[in-house]
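Troubleshooting log. The previous run stalled partway through. Resubmitting the same two chains, unchanged.
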Amino acid sequence: MDAQMAAPVTMRSTSSMMKTLNRLSCYGKHGVENYLMGKCTSNSQEMVIIKDTNVQVGHRFKHFDWFHDRLLEKFGAVIPIPGLPEKQITGRFEFEFIEQRCSRLQTWIARLSQHPVIAQSEVFQHFLHFTDEKVWKAGKRKAEKDEVIGGFIFNVMLTPPTELSVQTIESSQDEFGCFVRRMDEGIRNITSTIHDFDKSCTGGVARELQRFGKHLVEHAEAFSCSGYLGEVNALVMAMQHTGKTFKDIGFLFSEHPKKDWNSFMELLLEYKGLLACFPHILQNHKAATEKLKECDKCVTANKMTLLEKETVNKRVDIMAYAGG
Amino acid sequence: MDAQMAAPVTMRSTSSMMKTLNRLSCYGKHGVENYLMGKCTSNSQEMVIIKDTNVQVGHRFKHFDWFHDRLLEKFGAVIPIPGLPEKQITGRFEFEFIEQRCSRLQTWIARLSQHPVIAQSEVFQHFLHFTDEKVWKAGKRKAEKDEVIGGFIFNVMLTPPTELSVQTIESSQDEFGCFVRRMDEGIRNITSTIHDFDKSCTGGVARELQRFGKHLVEHAEAFSCSGYLGEVNALVMAMQHTGKTFKDIGFLFSEHPKKDWNSFMELLLEYKGLLACFPHILQNHKAATEKLKECDKCVTANKMTLLEKETVNKRVDIMAYAGG
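Second attempt completed without errors. Output:
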C-alpha cells in the first residue's frame, strides 16, 4: 500500500495528541455517557470488504489531517488511532524532512490497514481509493455526516451474550492499564538509551576515530621529514594506510545508525503513538464502569428501573468486549 | 632483562623533567662551555662489554632514582635519558599503581639497555648486576666520583676526522629540531585522541549498551504481565536473551582498552619521555655552534689564536658527530 504526499505541506502548531484529548471526551453529543444512556440509536449496518488494490494515491497533508480527524471521531473511543507524524523539532533540510514524513505517513496508513474494523470502514476505503476531485468531495461530505461516531460506535457492535461482572471488567482494565504504563515506560527508556548511544557513536566515537586517523596520517609526515637515511617509506606508507583505514572506520560509525537503529527507532515511534491512545480509551472504559455503579445506586434509590439498569449493563459489556 | 622493585616506594614531589633541565645546563663545572674551552682533560678509556646475564635484580625505587641521576649526569648532554615513570595524578588502588610502575620501570631499563654506549657503561653494568650491599656501595662510590660527566663525555669520544661546516651542523640541528617538534606534536595529538576515544568507549558506549540491555530485560517483563493469552514466553525469553547479550557487549567495550589501547599508550608514554630529552640536547648543540661563531670573532679581534679556535672547532665537530 502506498500513500504519497503531493507537495510540501503547512505544519500545524497544535499537536495531534492534544486533539485526541479533546475529541475523546466521555461527554458531549457523541460521548460514551450518551451511548450508555441510549441517547442515540443507529440502524447503520456498515460492512466494507477490504481490497488490496495496490493503487498509488496522491494525498496532500491536509487530506491526511482530515482523514485522521474522521478516524478519531469514529473509532477513537475503542481503537487506538495514532497521531499523524509530527513536525520535527530539530532543524533538518527540507527535502530530508519531507522524505521522512512521507515514509512515516506510509507507515501510519499501513498500520491502520492492518486493523480489520478500520480497513473495512467506508471512510478508509474512500481515503485509499481517491481518484478524482468530484468523487472525493462526495465521499468527504458523506463521511462528515456519519452519526456512528464517538461512543455511538458501540451501537453497531455485536458481542458475545455472556454477561461480565464489574469485578472482571475492572480487573482487566487494571491489568491492561498496568501493561500500557510498563510498555510506555520501557519504550521511553529504550528510546532515550538509543538516542544517547546514537550520539556517542555518531558524535564521540566517529569523530575520535576520524581524528585518530588524521593524526596518524600527519604523524607519518613527521617521519618523512626526519632526515633519517634508513628505510622510511614503508613506515610512512603503512602509517598513512592505517590512518586512512581509521578514518574510514570512523565514517562507518557515523553512517551506522541510518542502516541499523533508525528503522528500529521508527518502530518505537509508532509504538509510542499507539500507546499514547490507550489512556484515553481506558478513561472511557473506567467512566463506563463508574456509570454502572451509579446506576446500581439509582436502582436502590428507586430512581431507575432494574430493566433500564440492565440495558446500561449490556452496553457496558459491549464496551468491555470491544476493548478486548 | 628484569628489574624488580622490592617494595612500595616514597614518591618524589619534584618531576624528573625539572631535574633534567637543571642538570643539562651548558655551563657549570661539567658544562659544554668548559668542555669546548678544554677546561678538563681526561685520560679515561672506558670500555665495557655488554653481557646479557638474565640476572634478576631487586632494586628499591631510590636505587632507580640514584641510577637515573648518574645516567643523566654522564650521558644527558648527548643521549636522551628518559625520566623515571612518575607518580600518577589520578588515584588508583595502591597495588594496581605499584604493578604499573614496576612494569614501566622494566620498560625503562629495557629501553636503555638497547643503547650501545649506555649498555656498555660501568654504571649500567653496576646497576644491572647488583648482588650484595658491600659491592653495591663500592660501585656507587666509584660512579659518584666519575669525572667524565656532562659536556666532558665528548672528551672520550672518537669521531671521523672529516671537518664539518657550521652550516652543515646548523642545518642538521634545524632538521632534527623540526622532526622532534613534529613527533612531539603528533604523539600529543594521538595520545589525547586515544584518551577521548577511550572515555567514549568505556564511558558512554559501554554504559549505554549495558543500559539498553537492562531496559530490554525490563521490557520483556512488561510483556509477561500483559495478560495476553497468546504465546508470550518465547518473546519474553528472546528479549531477555537479547538484553543480556547487549549487557555483555557493553561489558566487553568497558574492558577493551585494557586489551588493546593500554599497551599502545604505554609505548607513546615512552616516546614522550624520550622526546622530552631532545630540546635540552639540541640546546647544548646550538650553544656549541654559537660558541664557535664567538671564537671566530675573537680570532678576528686577535683575542684568540687560529690554533686555539681550531681546537674548539674539533670539539664542536665531535659533539656534532656524537649527535648523529
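Takeaways: The first strand of chain B starts at residue 2 and ends at 5. Confidence is low (pLDDT under 50) at residues 1-24, 45-55 of chain B.
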